[in-house]
Amino acid sequence: MEDTIFGKIIARKIPAKIAYEDEQYIAIHDVNPQAPVHLLVLPERHIDSFREIGEFPAEEAKRMLEFVADVAAREGLTDYRVAVNVGPSAGQTVFHLHWHIKGGWV
Ligand code: 5GP
User: Fold this and answer.
1) Is 98 among the residues known to form the active site?
2) I want to staple 27 with a disulfide (CB 3.0 to 4.6 A). Which of 19, 50, 67, 84 is the partner?
3) Which band of pLDDT confidence, cut at 50, 70 and 90, is reported for residue 2?
4) Catalytic hit among 29, 38, 46, 98
5) H/E/C letters for each residue in the chain?
6) Does ligand 1 have an atom closer than 6 angstroms to the CB of 49?
7) How far is the CA of 78 from the centre of ligand 1 (A)?
């Protein structure tokens, strides 16, 4: 099994507060939220970071972005920020691609 905290969450080896999921993607609540609503979207397919996005089949990459937008809409967010930290000096601490969705200020 992939040895990151998100790999373990995807494998249901450790718990997380799951907001939404489908066959390929999962949205969880960040354990240390930096906004009133702070979700993380994780693809089940493992890549270390956004740098390797070319490893995703095109349709899967498109669906991942649609999933991010769907999660935000289902949370009732109209205005929100989507961010990906790439590399430690940019703030990446977990080396499994994930999309931050932050919102809920209004
Ligand atoms: P990064 O810093 O890599 O861009 O984002 C990692 C995020 O994962 C952080 O916002 C951090 O709070 C969150 N996080 C770290 N460990 C856990 C965990 O075990 N469960 C959940 N739900 N979030 C986590």
Assistant:
1) yes
2) 19
3) confident
4) 98
5) CCCCHHHHHHCCCCCCCEEEECCCEEEEECCCCCCCEEEEEEECCCCCCHHHHHHCCHHHHHHHHHHHHHHHHHCCCCCEEEECCCCHHHCCCCCCCCEEEEECCC
6) no
7) 23
State the Cα–Cα distance between residues 42 and 26, nearest whole angstrom: 5
Check if 4 has its Cβ closer than 6 Å to any atom of ligand 1.
no
Q: Among candidates 35, 49, 39, which has minimal Cα distance to 90?
A: 49
Which tens digits make up the pLDDT trace of 8-40?
Answer: 999 999 999 999 999 999 999 999 999 999 999
pTM of full prediction above 0.90: yes
Q: Which of 24, 37, 103 is nearest to 66 (CA)?
A: 24
Superfamily, domain 5-103: HIT-like (3.30.428.10)
Q: What percent of the chain has pLDDT over 90?
A: 96
